[in-house]
Design goal:
Keywords: Coiled coil. Helices cover about 60% and strands about 10% of the residues. It is α+β, with helices and mostly antiparallel strands. Strands 2-3-1-5-4 form a five-stranded antiparallel β-sheet, covered by helices on one side.
Length: about 350
């Protein structure tokens, strides 16, 4: 097939190296022709011709054909390569142009979306900044108002404490002529509590102390519900006309110690409001220890305990401090005897 296409191969009389180059060039040219679709001529059958001779072609003719074939091969290859390069260049140009247009469209789309989002963020930021400024102003106003309220509260608190102390003082002053008697059985006073209490004081404190008539303005039970049978009776509240009579009754009750009325123990106390009474009652355990130890003491209004130890007076308004002092400085007679 190569000999039919290339006649130079019919009578190839060259060196082996030269023959290899020619054959390679013919093969390359044959492949190019096959790619282009050129018709391949048929090879004549000369093997059966006995008169056929194979004379050796001249060397210069063989070299000229090889040069022409090489030049033709080179030009064809260059043309093919140039055509492929041009096609590739055109394809690349089209692809680059298409990619550029797509990238430009995508960039514009992204720029538009980013512009919208940035604008929305700016609006949100401006709104947030406005809200923050409003909150800061409101917070400043609230802080100023709170400071003013705290000052007003402190002032009102001081005024309240003053008024509270004054009310307590006025209430207790209104009760300064009152006595509270605990332990009298229910209904023992009958229908006339004032007369009953006058007879009660005379009997309990002793008729020998009735150097003057005790004037009672009024007497009544406390306002608590009436107790059932067997329960603790309500206390009697007695208002005396003169403060000196009240002090005299309290002095005589302290001098007599334990008091009894018809076999039942009774107690006589100053009548004070519940708050002061609670404060004074908190000193009861300490007063019990002082009585057992034989230590003199006094409980002043409203709730101030004064203890006399070794001719020295010690005052306490806190029952815990008084308890601590008694435990440390006062010796129990029972303990010392043991």
């Amino acid at each position: 097939m190569l000999k039919a296409r290339f006649q130079c191969l019919q009578r190839l009389r060259v060196t082996p190296e030269r023959a290899c180059d020619i054959i390679v060039a013919c093969v390359i040219l044959h492949n190019i022709a096959t790619i282009r679709g050129e018709h391949c001529p048929s090879e004549p059958d000369i093997s059966s011709d006995p008169n056929h001779e194979h004379p050796d072609p001249p060397t210069d003719i063989q070299d000229g054909r090889a040069v022409r074939d090489t030049i033709s091969y080179r030009d064809g290859m260059m043309n093919d390569i140039k055509m492929q390069i041009d096609n590739m260049h055109e394809n690349l140009r089209e692809d680059i142009s298409s990619l550029r247009e797509e990238a430009k469209a995508d960039t514009n789309k992204l720029r538009h979306e980013l512009s919208q989002k940035i604008e929305a963020l700016h609006e949100t930021h401006a709104e947030t900044t406005s809200i923050q400024k409003d909150m800061e102003r409101a917070l400043c106003d609230t802080t100023d108002r709170l400071t003013a309220l705290e000052k007003d509260h402190e002032t009102l608190k001081k005024d309240y404490n003053k008024l509270h102390d004054k009310c307590l003082d006025l209430e207790n002053r209104s009760r300064r002529n009152n006595l509270r008697v605990v332990g009298i059985n229910e209904d023992a006073e009958g229908g006339n509590p004032s007369r009953f209490m006058a007879e009660f004081f005379s009997e309990v404190l002793g008729k020998e102390n009735d150097d003057s008539l005790i004037m009672i303005d009024r007497a009544h039970r406390t306002l608590a519900p009436k107790p059932r049978t067997g329960e603790r009776p309500r206390a009697m509240i007695v208002r005396l006309h003169y403060y000196t009579d009240r002090e005299k009754i309290l002095r005589l009750s302290r001098e007599k110690g334990r008091l009894f009325y018809k076999g039942s123990p009774v107690h006589i106390f100053p009548d004070m409001n519940p708050e002061v009474s609670k404060l004074r009652a908190s000193f009861n355990p300490v007063k019990g220890k002082l009585r057992n130890a034989g230590i003199p003491y006094s409980l002043y209004y409203p709730a101030k305990l004064t203890i006399t130890v070794n001719n020295a007076k010690h005052s306490f308004t806190d029952p815990r401090e008084a308890e601590k002092f008694v435990s440390t400085h006062v010796q129990n007679p029972a303990t010392s005897t043991a």
